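Duplicate of #3305? Posting structure anyway:
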């Protein structure tokens, strides 16, 4: 899947999820975006929330909290400008149809939050936009995931191909998610069922789960990001990665494909030069006169390679030496009759 200039088939994508960790502070939001890029994130993601379009008006306290955290559109534009200036991507989870219709073309990719996996009107706008889509799947059964993918597929306008523009992220919507409940085995199952790019939206503490997710086939990792886990009592700071932690994850992800390699064991391996020094040769266990009928006790096996390998020693047993051999002199097949 290609998002902007980033091809997830060539290198896994690391998304720094700022979410609401800015807590409504525009200056801190910009600082977070720049710090995420500096730490090595490939993309910065925000949440665009219009509280009355997300929460029932009867929940006045919740709307008040979300309103305190709400940033103006110009702040998001400035975040995007700074992120893209550094060659990185800008994504957003958008939580209502009107806002998504307005901002869809300002985003490098549209993120659909887990809670909106069955919000078909939002899925349809995302599908018709032609923008890449990253779909989180927390709280969802496989049949619900398949159904949501079907909605996006139905709304995708030719000649766009679904596989080129949709990624599905395994996710567990617990904050934080205990490691024993991360259920990372779902990643290869989702990939096999859907045939799409898969990833992992990580809500665990630390980065171990993210690294394991990579080994299971995740090509996108989304990790919450903050400058200080203890900045405030707001829940998401504690489960977020700080800059040093994100930098280590970014470095591991950049090296991941090279470390995994092709898996080919039929061609010359990178450690071929070590072979001669580490393998053994069949040698004379003592001074052996010409005409000696070789017995197992006449043979020894020592480094380096260069003579007959131990795996072919049986070809020498019971045969006579054509010439005398010194102690630990390599025995070649041509030395016997």
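Output from current build:
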């Amino acid at each position: 899947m290609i998002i902007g200039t980033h091809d997830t088939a060539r290198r896994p994508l690391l998304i720094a999820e700022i979410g609401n960790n800015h807590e409504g502070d525009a200056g801190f939001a910009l600082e977070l975006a720049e710090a995420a890029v500096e730490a090595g994130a490939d993309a910065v993601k925000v949440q665009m929330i219009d509280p009355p379009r997300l929460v029932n008006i009867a929940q006045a306290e919740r709307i008040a909290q979300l309103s305190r955290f709400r940033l103006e559109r110009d702040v998001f534009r400035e975040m995007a400008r700074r992120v893209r200036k550094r060659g990185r991507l800008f994504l957003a989870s958008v939580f209502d149809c009107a806002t998504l219709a307005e901002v869809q073309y300002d985003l490098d990719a549209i993120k659909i939050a887990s809670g909106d996996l069955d919000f078909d009107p939002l899925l349809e706008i995302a599908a018709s936009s032609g923008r890449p889509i990253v779909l989180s799947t927390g709280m969802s059964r496989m049949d619900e995931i398949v159904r949501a993918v079907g909605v996006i597929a139905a709304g995708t306008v030719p000649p766009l191909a679904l596989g080129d523009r949709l990624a599905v992220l395994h996710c567990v919507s617990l904050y934080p998610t205990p490691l024993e409940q991360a259920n990372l085995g779902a990643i290869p199952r989702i990939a096999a069922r859907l045939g799409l790019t898969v990833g992992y939206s990580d809500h665990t503490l630390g980065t171990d789960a993210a690294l394991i997710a990579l080994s299971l086939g995740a090509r996108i990792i989304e990790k919450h990001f903050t400058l200080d886990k203890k900045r405030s009592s707001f829940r998401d700071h504690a489960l977020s990665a700080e800059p040093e932690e994100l930098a280590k994850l970014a470095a591991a992800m950049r090296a991941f494909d090279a470390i995994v390699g092709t898996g080919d064991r039929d061609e010359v391996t990178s450690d071929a030069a070590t072979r001669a020094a580490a393998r053994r040769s069949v040698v004379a266990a003592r001074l052996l006169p010409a005409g000696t009928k070789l017995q197992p006790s006449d043979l020894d096996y020592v480094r380096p390679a260069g003579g007959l390998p131990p795996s072919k020693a049986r070809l020498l047993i019971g045969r006579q030496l054509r010439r005398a051999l010194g102690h630990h002199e390599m025995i070649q097949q041509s030395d016997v009759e």
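Confirmed duplicate; merging threads. The longest strand covers residues 13-19. Residues 243-260 form the longest helix (18 residues).
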